[in-house]
Recover the amino acids of this structure.
């Protein structure tokens, strides 16, 4: 990055900036003023649909051919902006095999000499705590490890302005601290940072200013250097992940005798490659309870959920018993799916239809006889299925999105689509992998309500999350994975 410290000229300036996507009538952004000087960091927060991701792309200069812009966007001569997008499934290029290759790729595409690319990649990986994973195949990484790999690649380009859309997604507290340190060093060297998203967290809290967006328009801005307090965050629909948990707000009953055990697990050990990731996990999921699954990036949360769903093989000796004592240890995944609804970390892995409605219709079997139903029964079963789909779309906040392609939805809605599919099979247990990613305050409330209504109806939920506030609010119990040794305790 060129030396910037001597100058107070802005690195990036948006003035009266507006943008309208092609084929739409309402502008996604209007009248946005934003200036980033060397050393500064600004957060732009808004509820889902407020235009924060569009603003991130505009700042990074990536909107060009997608629509029509008005006003001014100026990036200082000889400088460039780099951006990490909000879709965890689209952050890796798919062109490389290992972490080192992926981190070095952006430089190679720029035409930098290979040794320099590798040197920069090494430094980026070191800084973000990934040096030990340099040789790892990308398809073996956990969600947080993937996100940090993408960020290391971006850092090798040495941009002057870093634009990060919801960068804390999927990161544990330690990784967030490392990232905050690395952004501080980046700013001290004269760079500027723009963070966008729907949540206030440890990273947005390090910014000099917070600009709130509402329906594409600036709604408020905090005074420089002041931290936003509770009121504007609530007013603008932002989920405050740093707030102390408000357990009483959820109307959770006090300690009650545990309900029927719906999933009983003992001696569950799983290896990934040659690495032992889970070692003798024991847990009981009971009717009416939410168990929050916590642990650092790479501690094995997705591995545990995947092994319970029958998607990853457990070491011999594991005992897994489902509702009513049904033996699941040797059952294949499609058999377990009748009892255990698995919603994995990457919703894209579980979506295959071209519309949300088609995806959900496909999830429901058409009566016990399937295609062999008589015509009249089939008509009745289809109408019933339509009704079920309609209802679940409402519960999951997908009303009005039935004709959308799942990949046109934002990541949180894509996850809702997979949650809805799982609910349609009426499982006794829901296994949710990081369902809070990318949600604003209303999205978090909807998720809490959905989880609670599932347990109130007698189900059990095991949910992996890095959001400690939400874990404390929703979890009746907590199971913490760490150092490959699980420890469980009550919330
Ligand atoms: N084939 C493999 N070989 C070696 N290690 C692997 C393999 N597959 C996964 N791992 C490692 O297993 C560990 C557990 O991964 P998992 O995805 O379960 O973690 P997680 O707790 O869900 O993490 P995150 O919070 O980042 O999503 C990670 O360190 C991951 O890199």
């Amino acid at each position: 990055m060129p030396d910037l410290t001597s100058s107070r000229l802005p690195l990036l300036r948006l003035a009266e900036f507006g943008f309208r996507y092609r084929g739409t009538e309402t502008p996604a952004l209007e009248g946005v003023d934003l200036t980033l000087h060397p050393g500064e960091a600004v957060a732009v927060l808004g509820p889902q649909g407020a235009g924060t991701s569009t603003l991130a792309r505009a700042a990074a200069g990536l909107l060009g051919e997608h629509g029509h812009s008005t006003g001014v966007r100026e990036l200082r001569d000889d400088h460039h902006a780099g951006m990490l997008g909000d879709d965890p499934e689209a952050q890796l290029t798919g062109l490389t095999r290992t972490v080192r290759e992926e981190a070095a790729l952006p430089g190679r595409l720029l035409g930098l000499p290979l040794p320099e690319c590798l040197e920069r990649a090494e430094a980026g990986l070191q800084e973000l705590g990934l040096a030990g994973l340099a040789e790892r195949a990308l398809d073996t990484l956990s969600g947080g490890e993937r996100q940090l790999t993408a960020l290391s690649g971006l850092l090798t380009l040495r941009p002057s302005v870093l634009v990060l859309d919801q960068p804390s997604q999927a990161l544990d507290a330690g990784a967030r601290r490392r990232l905050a340190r690395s952004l501080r060093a980046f700013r001290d060297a004269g760079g500027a940072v723009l963070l966008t998203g729907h949540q206030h967290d440890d990273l947005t809290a390090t910014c000099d200013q917070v600009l709130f967006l509402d329906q594409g328009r600036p709604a408020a801005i905090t005074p420089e250097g002041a931290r936003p307090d509770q009121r504007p965050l609530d007013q603008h629909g932002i989920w405050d992940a740093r707030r102390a948990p408000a357990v009483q707000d959820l109307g959770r009953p006090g300690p009650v005798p545990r309900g029927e055990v719906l999933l009983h697990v003992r001696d569950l050990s799983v290896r990934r490659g040659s690495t032992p990731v889970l070692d003798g996990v024991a847990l009981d999921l009971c009717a009416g309870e939410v168990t929050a699954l916590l642990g650092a990036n790479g501690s094995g949360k997705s591995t545990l959920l995947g092994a319970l769903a029958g998607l990853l093989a457990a070491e011999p000796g594991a005992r897994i018993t489902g509702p009513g004592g049904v033996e699941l240890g040797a059952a294949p995944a499609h058999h377990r799916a009748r009892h255990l609804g698995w919603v994995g970390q990457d919703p894209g892995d579980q979506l295959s239809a071209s519309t949300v409605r088609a995806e959900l219709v496909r999830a429901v079997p058409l009566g016990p006889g399937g295609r062999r139903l008589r015509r009249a029964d089939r008509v009745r079963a289809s109408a019933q299925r339509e009704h079920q789909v309609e209802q679940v779309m409402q519960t999951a906040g997908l009303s009005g999105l039935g004709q959308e392609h799942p990949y046109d939805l934002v990541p949180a809605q894509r996850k809702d689509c997979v949650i809805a599919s799982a609910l349609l099979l009426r499982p006794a247990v829901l296994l949710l992998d990081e369902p809070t990613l990318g949600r604003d305050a209303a999205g978090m409330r909807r998720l809490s309500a959905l989880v609670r209504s599932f347990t109130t109806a007698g189900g059990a939920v095991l949910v992996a999350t890095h959001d400690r506030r939400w874990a404390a609010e929703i979890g009746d119990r907590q199971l913490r994975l760490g150092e490959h040794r699980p420890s469980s305790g009550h919330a």
